Structure formats: structure tokens, C-alpha cells
Amino acid sequence: MLSLTSAEITQFIGTFWWPFCRLMGAFVMMPFLGHVHIPATVRILLAFMMAALLGPTLPPPPQVDPVSLAAVWLVTEQILIGFMLALFLTLMIHVMTLLGAMMSMQMGLAMALVNDPGSGSSEPILGQMFLMYGTLLFLALDGHLVAIGVVVDSFHLWPVGQGIFALPLMGLVERFAWMFGAAFMLALPAVLAMLVVNLTFGVLNRSAPSLNIFSLGFPMAMIMGLLCVLLSFSGLPTRYSDICLQALQSMYEFIGGTP
Known about the structure:
Layout: H1 6-29, H2 40-54, H3 69-107, E1 113-116, E2 121-124, H4 125-140, H5 143-157, H6 169-207, H7 213-254
Antiparallel strand pairs: 1-2
């Protein structure tokens, strides 16, 4: 007859439960997998299957009473660790949204908004286009597979029970500034080109006040803006690939990995 003690049952359950919590926290926030159109059932089943496969290969989990406050805190830690790992990728994806917003403001399309059911907010149409392009490019580069691999490696580099406050949290905060800086660097050529166009119409308005610059300048600015968008796509894949690589590398270093 098979006899198991309460300690053995607790350890057996913890072998699968703690990885499941971290994976679920990552899948809730991770781009594409965390989208509102992906059913929660799919994320739960994916996290459960991965936890079942990874559990026997991971270091032994800490002995924690499953009905104690320590277990609740440990669950919260694992969810937050997975959440923060996926946040690196979310910031990387939103670089493209900021890029589209900056270019829309220069083109005069800032008023053209579309409701995003995923975030519950309205964003420029151009930002939505760049967001879809960045997501598809990230998937084409197998970035989602690399990201899942980093989450799996986190169980070895940062085992369950090691805590959350020892993580380089300031490095995660600095990624917000990196997001704005990366978006600005991508949008800088188009912003400068549109600035030259606006300066040209400003000089034209001063030299020929009789011309209706507003009726002439808006469509010309729109045409030049669309031309800038077209030209931006020529070098955008290479630059965005570097941004994806930086985000994945930062995600790996966040859990103690060496570059």
C-alpha cells in the first residue's frame, strides 16, 4: 500500500504549483499571449502543461504549509516575478505604439483615434498599425519562444523561495526611460523631416501671406508624413530586431543571467 506523509504531499504539490504561479504571471502580461483576445483558459492550460513538464527537473521547492500566510506570500512572489519578466517585453512592444503616436502628432493625425479593446483606451491609428507590425515581427523572430525559454531558465537562475527584493528592481524602472528613448530614436528621422516641411510652410506663409497655407499645408504635411512612414519601414526591421535583442537580454540579466 502506498503511504505518503503530509510533508511529501506538500512537496509534491509545490513542485508543480510554484512554477505554475510564475508562468501564469508571465503569460498574463506577455505580449500576444496576454492579449484580451486570447482566452484565459488557453493561458491556464499552457501554464499548467509547462509546469507539469518542468516540475520534476527543477530544484526542490521550499517546505511551506499550503494553508499558511507564508504560502500566500510565496504565491504572490512567483506571480510578481513572472509579471516583471513579461513587463520587459510589454515595454518593448509599446515602443512601436509610441513611435506611431509621435509620427501621428507630426502628421496631424493625432485626432484620428481608434478604441483598443485590449487596453480599454484610444490610441492613434498609426500607433495601432506599428503595434501590429512590431508584434508580428517579434513573433517572426521567434522572440516569444526565447522569452518563454528565459522564464524557464528563471527557475534555475532564481529558484522559488529566493525572494523578490533582491532582484535589480531599479533596472526594471529604468526600462521605462529606455522605452521612450528607443521610440524617439526610431521616430527622429521622420520628426526632423516633418519639421523641415513645417518650417518651409512657415517661410512660405511669411513670404506670401495671400496664400491659404492652412488649406495647402495640411494635405501636403499628410502626404509627406505618409512618405516618411513608407521610408521608415525600410530600416525598421533591423532596428527593431536590435531593440528586441536588448529587451530579451535585459530580461535574462534581471534574473541573474550573464550576457
